[in-house]
């Protein structure tokens, strides 16, 4: 019995759904990471993302106007998204970011799409999600890639100008993460349509969690097609199919709403019982029956690589800007709380991870902008950027404490904090994404021979043994080369290559090569020892996926520092860069050690540890000195800090604006505050019960002059406003400055 025949008995074949997923995307930078040789040349050749003049004008015009219209407190206390917001979104074509200009769309780049969604999300998660969905996985993108000319000509102009609002229904009560197991069925039948008997589908479905469903005018629907009567002349089970059905088509139910954490975007259900539709309703026509899963997977990049990561980045930038400003102006025990090391540790972590988030956002959208569909990279972006966003928000809540938990127009964290779990759950729940998708897809996509080997093992071709033996020789040679490279780098770490022109980058580039070389070895031995069982060993495979992910993050950090940071701002950016890159490399190294510590075969585990010389943690550490340096830099009003919080656009009178005004006022009078504190220490003046009284005393004692006094009083008023929280009367009516009830949805407390 040949080795191929033996393996055929124990190794599972690639299922149709798995094969379609593998065929639907591209391999990009993650391929070189998996194979142990991170391609920094390819990384540096990626064209830098930038907004076109038209895209910038849209941000400066309609987006800015939209932000000024949004009162998120009003939205969250209401029942629906206000009609004036929806009407504005339609009028300004916010639903057409990905639709070509030839159909009346804006045809913006992935980077611009991400920037627009993320900017809106800093003000309102509900509005951001409403904009996000039509511009990611849904009818628009499916029509662009797979629709017939007639479908495109009819629907795309209507979607572009808002005459039609789309939703896409995939998730069923019985099939969430296992989307391939959807129970919704379309039976091939003849029926009546427009007074004629035509061939079509009789569909029964029950879907939930469908964003925009309650207000959609056109329903995208995924279901399985069966042909029990052989009307199409082929097999009975034809596979997942996607159709586009008008809301007013007989039998379509769009109505009942969900309440996703109180975030007021439209989300709900759709159902239908034996609804007959003609074949023309199938996206791409009858020829696309059974191609639905391939179509869906190929279009996942927008949701996973653009929209959901944009929500994570926006959360981080809001958290960083708000926390750093609050830490600078909020004082306890006579000091700004940003001077306490406990706060500094949290603040540095927020700052470093916000930098990393922006770097990953930029690199991922740059890849998508090149026309690539890297499904592993977009899964990495979706999982890690939403998780980091959640982690950063938690830290910001800790810093702002009582201010962070009091709802009202002045609270800049609450909406994002409540909405963050939404991004965690959609487009593949994060547990699924980490444990099954990142390495599960990566191992098949990125290994140069594995997919071909599995196909040859299960092949019925008469030359299959010969083909298998040829692939096996190549695989063994590949694995031996990986082991030798990892051993060399373990014994002679100084031989790792680095091509960066910046000395501070080269050490990290070398570190990435060392970790990647170890990853390649561990992946090879996992396949050799565990084989098909690696699918079930989710914790082990997830850790290898973490290594891939964090090395991708480190490469993003390096590229951003080299290409997006002006040379004049490198000194400002350096602490952010060092923290972010070290965090990524440390996380990758920790994942490697956890993988080794838990590998089930003792002998193999010891051999892998020896061949990679992996006995201790060797990556550059995040020291207390770096934390203090970054926390200090994070509280400074610098051009680079503005660059990595650029998504937050304060509108006069909103919470962001109130915080920023107090912060900038303090930055403008640091020398005067130091003068007053020096006088207090010298007991030249007495402290007042309130700071304004202290300033009165300083003026009387000529410690400050009239002009300086006015400047400090102005700062103090802005400070008091920034540290204040919204108040309500007993019946939850918001109070104005004279303690009089006002419209609970319109704050005048902040005016």
UniProtKB/TrEMBL annotation:
Residues 71-162 form the Acyl-CoA dehydrogenase/oxidase N-terminal domain. One of its GO terms (cellular component) is cytoplasm. Its cofactor is FAD. InterPro entries: Acyl-CoA_dehydrogenase, Acyl-CoA_Oxase/DH_mid-dom, Acyl-CoA_Oxase/DH_mid-dom_sf, AcylCo_DH-like_C, AcylCo_DH/oxidase_C, AcylCoA_DH/ox_N, AcylCoA_DH/ox_N_sf, AcylCoA_DH/oxidase_NM_dom_sf. It catalyses: a medium-chain 2,3-saturated fatty acyl-CoA + oxidized [electron-transfer flavoprotein] + H(+) = a medium-chain (2E)-enoyl-CoA + reduced [electron-transfer flavoprotein]; a long-chain 2,3-saturated fatty acyl-CoA + oxidized [electron-transfer flavoprotein] + H(+) = a long-chain (2E)-enoyl-CoA + reduced [electron-transfer flavoprotein]. Its EC number is 1.3.8.7, 1.3.8.8. Transmembrane segments: none annotated. One of its GO terms (biological process) is fatty acid beta-oxidation using acyl-CoA dehydrogenase. Residues 167-267 form the Acyl-CoA oxidase/dehydrogenase middle domain. It comes from the Bacteria. Keywords: FAD, Flavoprotein, Oxidoreductase. One of its GO terms (molecular function) is flavin adenine dinucleotide binding. Pathway: Lipid metabolism; fatty acid beta-oxidation. Residues 444-728 form the Acyl-CoA dehydrogenase C-terminal bacterial-type domain. It is an enzyme of class 1 (oxidoreductase). PANTHER family: ACYL-COENZYME A DEHYDROGENASE, MEDIUM-CHAIN SPECIFIC ACYL-COA DEHYDROGENASE, MITOCHONDRIAL-RELATED. This is Acyl-coenzyme A dehydrogenase.
């Amino acid at each position: 019995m040949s080795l191929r025949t033996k393996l055929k008995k124990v190794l599972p074949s690639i299922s149709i759904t798995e094969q379609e997923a593998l065929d639907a995307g591209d391999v990009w930078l993650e391929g070189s990471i998996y194979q142990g040789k991170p391609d920094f040349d390819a990384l540096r050749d990626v064209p830098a993302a930038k907004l076109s003049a038209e895209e910038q004008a849209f941000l400066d015009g309609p987006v800015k106007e939209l932000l000024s219209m949004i009162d998120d407190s009003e939205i969250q206390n209401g029942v629906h998204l206000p009609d004036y917001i929806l009407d504005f979104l339609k009028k300004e074509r916010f639903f057409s970011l990905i639709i070509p200009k030839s159909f009346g769309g804006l045809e913006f780049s992935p980077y611009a799409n991400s920037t627009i969604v993320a900017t809106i999300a800093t003000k309102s998660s509900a509005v951001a999600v409403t904009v996000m969905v039509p511009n990611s996985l849904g009818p628009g993108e499916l029509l662009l890639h797979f629709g017939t000319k007639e479908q495109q000509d009819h629907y795309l102009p209507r979607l572009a100008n808002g005459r039609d609002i789309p939703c896409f229904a995939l998730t069923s009560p019985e099939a969430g993460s296992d989307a391939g197991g959807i129970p919704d069925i379309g039976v091939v039948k003849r029926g009546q349509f427009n007074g004629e008997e035509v061939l079509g589908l009789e569909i029964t479905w029950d879907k939930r969690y469908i964003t925009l469903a309650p207000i959609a005018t056109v329903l995208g629907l995924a279901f399985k097609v069966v042909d029990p009567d052989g009307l199409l002349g082929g097999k009975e089970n034809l596979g997942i199919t996607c159709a586009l059905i008008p809301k007013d088509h007989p039998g379509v139910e769009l109505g009942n709403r969900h309440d996703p954490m109180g975030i007021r975007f439209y989300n709900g259900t759709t159902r239908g019982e034996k609804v007959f539709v003609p074949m023309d309703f199938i996206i791409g026509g009858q020829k696309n029956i059974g191609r639905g899963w391939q179509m869906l997977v190929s279009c996942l990049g927008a949701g996973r690589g653009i929209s959901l990561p944009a929500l994570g980045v926006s959360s981080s930038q809001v958290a960083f800007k708000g926390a750093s400003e609050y830490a600078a102006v909020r004082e306890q025990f006579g000091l700004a709380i940003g001077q306490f090391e406990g706060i500094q540790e949290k603040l540095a972590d927020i700052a470093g991870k916000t930098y990393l988030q922006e770097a990953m956002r930029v690199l991922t959208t740059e890849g998508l902008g090149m026309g690539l569909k890297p499904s592993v990279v977009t899964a990495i972006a979706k999982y890690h950027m939403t998780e980091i966003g959640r982690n950063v928000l938690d830290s910001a809540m800790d810093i702002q404490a009582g201010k962070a938990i009091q709802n009202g127009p002045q609270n800049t964290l609450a909406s994002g904090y409540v909405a963050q779990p939404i991004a965690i759950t959609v487009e593949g729940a994060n547990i699924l994404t980490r444990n099954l998708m990142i390495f599960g897809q990566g191992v098949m996509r990125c290994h140069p021979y594995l997919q071909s080997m599995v196909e040859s093992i299960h092949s019925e071709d008469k030359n299959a043994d010969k083909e298998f033996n040829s692939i096996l020789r190549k695989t063994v040679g590949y694995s031996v080369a990986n082991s030798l490279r990892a051993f060399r780098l373990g014994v002679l770490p100084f031989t790792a290559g680095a091509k960066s022109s910046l000395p501070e980058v080269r050490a990290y580039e070398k570190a990435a090569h060392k970790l990647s070389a170890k990853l390649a070895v561990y992946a090879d031995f996992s396949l050799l020892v565990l084989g098909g069982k690696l699918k079930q060993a989710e914790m082990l495979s997830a850790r290898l996926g973490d290594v891939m992910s964090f090395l991708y993050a480190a490469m993003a950090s390096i590229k951003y520092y080299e290409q997006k940071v002006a040379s004049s701002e490198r000194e400002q950016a350096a602490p952010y860069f060092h923290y972010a890159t070290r965090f990524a490399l440390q996380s990758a190294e920790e994942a490697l050690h956890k993988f080794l510590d838990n590998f089930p075969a003792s002998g193999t585990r010891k051999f892998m540890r020896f061949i990679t010389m992996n006995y201790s943690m060797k990556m550059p550490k995040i020291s207390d000195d770096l934390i203090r340096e970054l926390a200090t830099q994070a509280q400074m009003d610098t051009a680079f800090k503005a660059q990595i919080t650029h998504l937050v656009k304060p509108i006069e009178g909103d919470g962001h604006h109130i915080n920023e005004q107090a912060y900038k006022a303090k930055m403008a009078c640091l020398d005067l505050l130091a003068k007053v504190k020096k006088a207090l220490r010298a007991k030249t003046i007495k402290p007042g019960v309130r700071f304004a009284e202290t300033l009165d005393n300083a003026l009387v004692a000529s410690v400050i002059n009239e002009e300086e006094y006015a400047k400090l009083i102005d700062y103090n008023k802005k400070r008091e406003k920034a540290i204040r929280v919204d108040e309500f009367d007993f019946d939850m009516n918001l109070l104005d400055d004279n303690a009089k009830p006002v419209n609970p949805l319109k704050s005048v407390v902040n005016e």
